[in-house]
Amino acid sequence: MSDIPRALVVGAGLAGSLMTTMLARRGWKVDLVERRGDLRLSSGSAGRSINLALSTRGITALERVGLAVNVLEETIPMHGRMMHDHRGQLTFQPYGQSGQAIQSVSRRGLNELLL
Predict the structure, then answer these.
(1) What are phi and psi of 16, to 5 degrees?
(2) pTM of the predicted model, to two decimals?
(3) If one looks up domain 6-42+49-114 in CATH, what number appears?
(4) Which end of the chain offers a freer environment for a tag, N or C, measured as fewer CB atoms within 10 Å?
């Protein structure tokens, strides 16, 4: 019997793909299973998806697997959001202090990179 630890990860979404990457980089033999087809092999999407808001915690997780720089090159900073009230008035709500932003990234693109 091998001394290499093994894991089975069920679900190749963002969390499953990240976990697979983390374990593999620590020397584990990892099997990743997903009921849907491999999204890297299809040109379309299974449905509409808005971009993912990537916070500091998400970036830290990507740093741990050495992918933060690659992902951050594909992001767009979001400094806040616009809200519409019942009268049609717009209000800007910042996501942090002046100059701070969270990063917007393609969910599919991030998932493909993690796979």
Answers:
(1) -65, -40
(2) 0.75
(3) 3.50.50.60
(4) N
